[in-house]
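INFO worker-7 received task bundle
INFO bundle size: 2
INFO processing item 0
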Amino acid sequence: MRIASIGHAVFSIAMIGLGIVGLLYRDLVPVWNPVPASVTAHELFVSLAALISLATGIGLLVSRTATIAARLLFATLLFWLLLFRLPNFLHTALFAACWSVFPLLVILAAAWVLYVWYAADWDRRHLRFISGNNGLHIARVLYGLPLIFFGAAHFIDVKDTLSLIPEWLPGHLFWAYFTGSAFVAAGIAVLIRFWARLAACLAALQIGLFLLLVWIPIVAAGSKVAFQWSETILNAALLAAAWVIADSYRDTPWLAGNDLQ
C-alpha cells in the first residue's frame, strides 16, 4: 500500500464506490452522468468512466500502480470537463451550467493533487508545469472557484437551500446565509492563499456536515427519489475530494499568508 494521507485513502475508496455504483446504476453517478444524448454511444461513455473510476480507485491504493492510476484519473476527468461539461455554458442556462461544471472541478482538483504527489520522473521532466508546484496551485484554484459558486448558490436559490435544512435546526434563513457566506469566504481564502489551510479544512468540514445532517437522513428515511440518492453520492465524493485538497496544505502553517504558500 502507498497511502499519502487519510484524504488519499478516502478519495480512493470514494472512486471505487463511484465505479461500482456507476456500473450498477448509471443514473445515480452525477460525476460521470449525464453524457449529452447527442454523443454517439453516450451510455458506453458512462460505463467506461465508471470502470475507470473503479480501476483508478483501486490503483491509487497500490504502490506499483499509484502513478499510472493518478495519471489516468486526472486525464479522464479533464477530458470529461472539456468535452462534456464546459460546452454546457453555451447550451444551457448559466446557473444550471455551473452546477454541471463546478462539482466536477472539485473532483478534478483532488485528482490533480494526487497526480502531483505521485508524479514520476517522466512527468516532472515532460509535464513540469502541471506536475509540480504550479500544478498544485492550479488544482487549488480549481477548488476555490467552486466553493465561491456553492456559497453564491445559497443566495441565488434560497428557497431550495431552505428546503434542505433539517427541521429541528432553528433559524433556517440564518443557516442558509451563514453556510453560503462560509463557502464564499473559504473559496476566496483559497484563491488568494490567505489562511488557505484553515479555509480548506473548514470547507471540507462543512461539506461533511451537509452529508451527515442533510443527505444521509434523507436516504436513511427510505427515499426512493433518484435525485436525492444521486446528490448523496455526489456529496460523499465532494467530501472525499475536499479532504484531499485540505491534506495538500499539511506542510503549510494554519494562518499562513500569501508569501508562505
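INFO item 0 finished
INFO processing item 1
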Amino acid sequence: MTQTMTPGEARLQAMAAPEGDIAASTHTLVVGPYLGRVAQRGAGGPNTAESLRSNEARLDEAAGLAAAIELDVIETIFAPVQRIRPSTYLGKGRVEELAGLIKAREIGLVVMDCALSPVQQRNLEKAFGCKVIDRTGLILEIFGRRASTREGTLQVEHAHLAYQRSRLVRSWTHLERQRGGFGFLGGPGETQIEADRRMIQERMTKIERELDGVTRTRGLHRQGRARVPYPIVALVGYTNAGKSTLFNALTKAQVMAQDMLFATLDPTARATKLPHGETVILSDTVGFISELPTSLIAAFRATLEDVIEADILLHVRDVSHGDSEAQAEDVGSVLRELGIETTAARIIEVWNKADLLDEGERTRLLNLSAQGRTDRDSDAPILVSALTGEGLSALTGRIEARIARQRSTFAVVLPPEDGAGLHWLYENGEVLDRREEEGGTMHLAFRIAPEKEPRFLNRFAGARRLNRAG
C-alpha cells in the first residue's frame, strides 16, 4: 500500500537535495550593518550582551550561520550604521557601494545580519539586483534544514508563513521558477507568490491544529514519565557550545554533534544512569543565539518544554570562545523569557572545551572552578572537555548533589526476610549506606524523590527522617 505524503512533507523531501545544490553554487555576501555606540544610545542603549560582543565576532557568527546551510560565502563586510534608513536600512552611499561590489563579484545572495522590514528587503533587492535575506530569514532557513521530527517541521513552516505573509513579492525569479517549497534560498515558488494572505492564514490555522495534537501527544509522554518519575536534566547553551557532544559523552548516544551552528534543532532525550545508580533523563535542546526573534522563541517554545520542566539545567558554555560572556548573557535572556530565573539553584554552569584553552587560561579557569571539583554541592562552575572526558566525573557528582538537595533522607530498618522491601528501595530511590547486623537485620540510609515519599512512608511506616528536601 502506497503511503501518501502531505504537501508540506512532499515539499520538504523535494527541498533537501536541491537546496544544498543551490546553496553551494550561490556566491554569498554577508553584511554586518551594526549600529555605532552613539546610535545605540540614541535607540535606548545597547543591551548587556551586545555591549560585550565585538562587531567582528558578530560578523563571524553571521558568516557561520550562512556556512551552516552550505552557502558559498565569498566575502564579509562590516557596514557601520549611524542612523537606520526606513527605506533601505543602509545609507544611499553604502547601498551604491555594495551594489557595485555585488555586480563585480557576481553575488547571488546578500545576507544582512539585522532585522529588515519588508519594504527595506524589497528595496535592497531592487538596488542589488539579487536575493536579500535578513537574520530572521537565515535562521528560519537553518531551522528548515535541521528539523527532522513532525513537530519540528510544523513549527518551522508555521514560523516561516508568519514571516512571509508580508513578503509575498520576491525578486529572485530564476530560482522561483525551478520549484516550490518554503526554503528562502529557492524562493516561495510560483503558487505561493500568487497565493494571498487568506490562503497563508488557512495553512497556518491548519498547522496550529496539528501542533495542538502533537502537544497533546507530548503531554501523554510526560504523564507516562510522571508515573515512573526520573529527574530531568536539560542541557542549554549558546549554539555550538558543545551540548550535543556533552550529551553523547554522558549517555553514550550518537546525536549529531558537529562544529556547526544549529547542528541540533529537535529535542532529544535519553535515560542514563549516574555513578551511584540514580536514573535521570538527559535532554539535549536547540542552541540559543543572540537577537533570536521573539516569534521564533514562541514558535519553538514546545521544543523547550523539557527546559521549563527540568529539575536541573546544565548551562553549557564554550569558554574557549572570545565572546563567551556575551553568549552566556544571551542564554540568560532567553531563559528569563521562558520564566526561568538564571540564579536558580537548579542551574549548573558547565565550562566546556577545556581542551581548546592555552595553558595560562586553562590554569586560571581551573582555579576559578576548583571549588566545584572538591565540593560536590558547590555552586562554582565545572570545567570540562566533552571531547576528551576531562571533568565529567566532577560534573556527574555535582548533578547527583543537586538532585540530593531536592530529596529527603530516611533511616530504614529491614528484617532479613524482607527481600521484597530491599528490592523496592533499590528500584525507587538511592541506598546511600547499608549495614547488616549479625542476625541479618539491615540498617539503611535511603534517599527518595518527594513525589515518591507517600508510597515509601506507606510501605515503610517505621522509617525515620534524617533530613528534609530543599
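INFO item 1 finished
INFO post-check item 1: Confidence is low (pLDDT under 50) at residues 8-18, 41-48, 170-182, 187-192.
INFO post-check item 1: DSSP finds 20 helices and 14 strands in the chain.
INFO worker-7 idle
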